[in-house]
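Task card 7
Instruction: Convert sequence to structure tokens.
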Amino acid sequence: MQLAASYDAEGRFDPFEPLFKEQQTQNLSVSRDKRAKRTPQTPLEKIALAQLKVTAIIRAASGNRALVEDATGKGYVVQVGTYMGLNAGQVTRIDNDRVVVEEEIESVTGEFRIENQELKLQKPAGEL
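Output:
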């Protein structure tokens, strides 16, 4: 009787081991120190707030909504809680004449601070 050939894995490459063990552990430690940034999920989150203008505000008992237009003329309806802007800004309030967006901005030193940006309603020409 003959025995079947046996496989000796010594000195051979294991296809199931990760190629970059050290880099993976280093990236994990860096990601713990740094805050995770929200990934844009809508087209409105890929546009800077400076490129947006409020064209209409709809007041309703269920909650105010605003029509926001980008530089190309495309409109978006936003409400409280909608994410918009490059810095993961979130609509916190919609008043009669403005939309308030709260952004979390990272400074040069790596510290995060919260800023409120206001987008004012564009009034027709000749109106005060």
